[in-house]
Write a structure and sequence with these properties.
The protein is α+β, with helices and mostly antiparallel strands. Helix content is 21%, strand content 26%. Strands 1, 2, 3, 4, 5, 6, 7, 8, 9 and 10 form a 10-stranded antiparallel β-sheet that branches. β3 and β4 form a beta hairpin. The radius of gyration is 19 Å and the shape is globular. The protein starts with 12 loop residues before the first helix and ends in a 12-residue tail after the last strand.
Length: 310
């Protein structure tokens, strides 16, 4: 039902998985979901219910039935929710701007010929088999080498692929001015229509295909600081053991009430990771509430950029 009307490109596969899952989730709602989505195909990564945890905890999680049926009492294994207490008397906007001001003082590194991005995650994926919804975990470690012309060489779980015109913003030099950066991020992301949830998605996508300079990081933090629905969590420790500053919002933009959280390095303003948690109802997904349905860790700053696979 959610299949695109035009032939699908390989690099649109993740976007189609998100569309499929949004439909599955909405079918389980007792009332009609308010689901505002862009009509144009986007290569953006899903924040709805795909990424679930990093490889740093892979050995600690056991999935006895990786593809469990939705009609049984067996729940898909999802990682523990990160501790996200609301920091009392801490202004999210002031805290974000303090990090942005620190980032602005950092030197701008030289731009490499190819941009290297590394992420890790566990992916919660659902599919229908013989009329029954099945949910399973797909662990993933991805490296990408992105050229200015938009072509991407990627290596996911050891498998190498190449795609032309795969980048969302090919050749874009991202602005250090918040208003101009917002205009750039809005290409393919209906931020004005959806609001802060889509801004979170767009900033994550920004980090998925670029290494933002300190000035661009500061501009992105300023955009979040302007939002009035973001709550400061204070210090948070991610699944890789990194301590950052967390910020959350509660939204139903994707069909089910969830909490979206982003964590930034307080020293340089870099996005460390992002998490989505279903907080009220799983729809037809066989997960227990609260359930981590999306988790992305950005790890390329912890290692030197290796050469792309030949």
């Amino acid at each position: 039902m959610a299949a695109p009307t035009t032939p699908e490109k390989t690099d649109d596969y993740q976007a189609r998985k998100q569309q499929d899952l949004v439909q599955i989730v909405n079918e389980g709602r007792a009332t009609t979901a308010t689901n505002i989505r862009s009509t144009r195909p986007r290569k953006r990564w899903a924040r709805v219910a795909l990424v679930a945890a990093g490889v740093a905890v892979a050995s600690a999680l056991v999935v006895n039935q990786p593809w469990s049926g939705g009609g049984t009492s067996v729940y898909a294994a999802t990682p523990p929710v990160l501790a996200t207490p609301t920091a009392q008397n801490l202004s999210a906007s002031k805290d974000l701007r303090a990090i942005a001001n620190r980032a602005k003082t950092l030197p701008t590194p030289p731009s490499p010929a190819m941009t290297y991005v590394a992420t890790s995650g566990w992916y919660l994926n659902s599919r229908e088999e013989d009329g029954e919804l099945r949910t399973g975990i797909e662990p993933s470690v991805t490296e990408k080498w992105i050229s200015p012309d938009g072509s991407i060489i990627s290596r996911t779980n050891g498998q190498v692929s190449q795609s032309a015109n795969a980048a969302m913003w090919p050749g874009t030099v991202f602005s250090s001015q918040p208003d101009e950066l917002l205009t750039q991020l809005s290409e393919g992301h209906p931020i004005k229509r959806i609001g802060t949830p889509e801004l979170f998605v767009a900033i994550e996508d920004l980090y998925r295909e670029s290494n933002p300079s300190p000035a661009v990081r500061a501009a992105a933090l300023e955009l979040i600081a302007r939002a009035d629905d973001v709550v400061a969590n204070g210090n948070m420790v991610d699944r890789r053991g990194r301590t950052g500053r967390g910020y959350s919002l509660v939204t139903s933009y994707a069909g089910l009430p969830s909490r979206m959280t982003v964590i930034f390095d307080p020293a340089n303003g870099r996005l460390l990771d992002a998490e989505d948690v279903l907080i009220e109802s799983p729809g037809k997904l066989n997960v227990q509430i609260p359930a981590v349905t999306s988790y992305t860790m950005f790890t390329h700053e912890e290692q030197e950029s290796p050469p792309p696979p030949s």
